[in-house]
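Researcher: First entry.
Model:
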Amino acid sequence: MQIQKRIFLVFSFSAIVIAIAFQLLQLSKLDIEKAELPLINRMPKFEFTNLQDQPFTNIDLPHNQPIVFMYLDPSCDECDQMVKKIIKHFDEFEKVNLIMVSEADKSLILSFSEKYALETYDNINVLIDHQELMYKEFNLIEYPSFVVYDANLNHLQTVDQYVTLSIVVKYVRKALKKTR
């Protein structure tokens, strides 16, 4: 009986030690994974397609000018209203490069672009995201969403909840101040 108790205690103690070791291993693994995650301070590399079916990448961005990405869906009422407001208050956006990106069908995006004559603005690019990069690389889910970068392509702010024009303009102004 005494031997059985000792064997039981040894096995119990061993199980506890193994469980603790496993927990410590899991915690250190999480720390390593967190350490390997990149900080999103710089703009991720991307390749979208413009409305002429040409690739548009980071290389195509103008230099020394803040960049504002707008993630939208042409069928989204909030997106429609936001673009109307941007056009109405375009003076707030004339010194930044505004990149409007959608995963929608090209015909819908083209129609949306024509509706607001977006191609007439030199600093607006309307692009198609065939690879879901706005979701995968920019971490955007909601429509409309904005990501603001300064002229050095450093991330300033992501605006993806409770989006108002005044909030977006606040960060556009901040990006412009950093450019001067």
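Researcher: Second entry.
Model:
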Amino acid sequence: MEVGCDYCSGWESAVSRSDVDCVMVSVPNKFHHDIVSAALEAGKHVFCEKPLARDPIEAREMVVAAQRSRRSLKVGSNLRYFPSVLKAKELLDGGEIDEVLFARGWIGHSGWQIGTWYSDAEITGGGTLLDNGCHLLDLYRWFLGEVESCIGFVSTSLWPISPLEDTAMASTTIECPSSSGALHAVPITCPCATRSPVDPRHGRRGPFLCLSRLSWGSLQMPCKMS
């Protein structure tokens, strides 16, 4: 089929072209590091599909490459652009609700990736926490700030994908400004599961934001009563 564009037989020649300003990397996780790093070193801006890398070492090296080249490196955290998420961010930033007491979300999928490269540990680097959990963790940081501390748990409880996890729980603390201007700790939880997830409900202590259907997930943020 004619698509009206040039093509290359390998990514190396594509990212080094002088008429290319920006590179979009949408390949399995294993190949992110080399392609992203080479594109940045060639002076290109890079948009990389999530997750950025298989492990922190690869991710840090890619960030350093972006800083060294003074080019932009962005990650495809598409949940930020869901209408419900954009509205919640607007309400928080506009001061229309009081300080967040805690945040809780869940995310996962039905396991359709089993048997594909998604269940190959060498290619992916992680299971549902890396593949799905990165979405919620990105939203937590976008809404509230940087993580101060984190603990987690992973297991392979349902699908034959060991050493990858199909069930995970992350608990983190974020320091963010309170209504008085002082910093206060906001605990957040992030359950992930490679199965059809069940939405956990809990009592609310005041008005809260509930962002449902975040691509097989939800995010809830109870807020302090004014």
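Model: Note on the second entry: The first helix runs from residue 11 to 15.
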